[in-house]
Amino acid sequence: MRSLDLAREVCERYHPGLLKALAGVPYAERERPGGPVIGMFRAHGGVGMLVPAAFGGHGADAVQAVAVQRALGALSPSLAAAVTMHHFTAAMLYSLAGRGGRLTSAQLAVLHEVVPKRQLMASGWAEGRTQANILTPSVTARPVEGGFVLTGAKKPCSLSASMDWLTASVAVPGPDGRAELALALVPAGSEGMEVRPFWGSDLLAGAESDEVVLQDVFVPRELVVRTTATDPGRLDDLQSAGFVWFELLISAGYTGAAGALVEAVVDGERGTAGERARLALRLEAALAVLEGAARAVREGLAGEAAVAAVLVARYAVQEALPAVAAQALELLGGLDFIRAPGHARMAGVVRALAFHPPSRAGAAEPLLRYFGGGPLELA
Which residues are in the Acyl-CoA dehydrogenase/oxidase N-terminal domain (predicted)? Predict the structure, then answer.
């Protein structure tokens, strides 16, 4: 399909050879626990897509990033889901790095190593907790001499076996004693960090989404990004930017998976021309909404307006994809179901978009208030 071919061209531009390498591995192998796809992503320079050129990366924009994620999702939904966590974390951190004085020299040194050393950053934000905002702290931080001691857990935590850094949202005591948001950069393998089995589904099993437990893990003060009295908005823009990137990228990966099914129907000339056209139109309509939101972000849409735009796109995609996948499977037919089990697994995968926060039910009232002229306040 043209739209998926265009996405592949963008992916090839940023990660030459990656798609060919992935396609050379059977689907079941790509999606199994401990499979090779994350290592292949790392080997083909995947970590640098959203990293600015000043730090050795590609500095891709939102539209390009959505295209790359679609291309990856069409081959390995597990990989697309896993690297969403790296990419949205990179987008947040490097947005701060581009503003003088907002990161310490130690924090900047970490960011300068990511691309040259092909390091992956896992997300210890609250994604995965029922009804939770992805940016709600799931780890507490106790001040000690020279830094903080972190305690808590993230489950599921994609990239748990391959991460070089865990970036964790933490609650730290503010000047008035009340908890405030901060961001800790935790080296993988730190004393007190443990990865425990968690993911029990065959779907998305290659994303390494197990539990990461922090039990009294020390993090130096210079590796914790905090709000300060002189810069009270330091993390506000970080939260909005991270939320926007997460929703765009996670939706794009699942759209790619559905696109692979539609492509199989169209290329195989399954069903009537009218049936194929209706199927493709439904997918392309969802894609247009997602790309429209990405384009608006690229052109400067920010804050609440950007969050609302990407949520509208995400829920439109979420509603469309299960129907697209079911129709595609029906048109592919029973023999395909028997002989190509990867298609059935792809169809199951797209339903997982509904399980990423915020849930549609949880966002309903905040969005209604926003549509009516009020603020957009997600819990």
Answer: 37-93
272 or 228, higher pLDDT: 272
Residue 210 shares a structural domain with residue 251:
no
Are 314 and 66 a contacting pair, CB within 8 Å? no
Nearest alpha carbon to residue 308 among 235, 234, 378: 378
Q: Is 144 helix (H, G, I), strand (E, B) or coil?
A: strand
Helix (H) or strand (E) holding 288: helix 273-298
104 occurs within a structural domain:
no
CA distances (Å), origin 155, targets 69, 94, 172: 23, 25, 21
Kindly state whether residues 139 and 158 are assigned to the same domain: yes
Domain count, the chain: 3
Give the global pTM. Answer: 0.93
Its domain, for residue 84, covers 2-97
Shared domain check, 188 and 219: yes
Question: Cβ–Cβ contacts within 10 Å for residue 32, how many?
Answer: 15
pLDDT tens readout for residues 359-369 = 999 899 999 99
Residue 105 lies in a domain: no
Q: Which residue has the tokens 């905040």?
A: 366
Q: How far apart are CA 258 and CA 346, in angstroms?
A: 7
Whether the predicted pLDDT of 232 surpasses 60: no
246 neighbors 314 (Cβ within 8 angstroms): no
Per residue in 247-276, pLDDT tens?
A: 999 999 999 999 999 999 999 999 999 999
Nearest residue to 87 (alpha-carbon basis) of 73, 100, 75, 74:
73
> How confident is the prediction for the chain on average, in pLDDT?
91
Which of 226, 251, 282 is the endpoint of a domain? 226
Which token pair is 131?
Answer: 């009804």
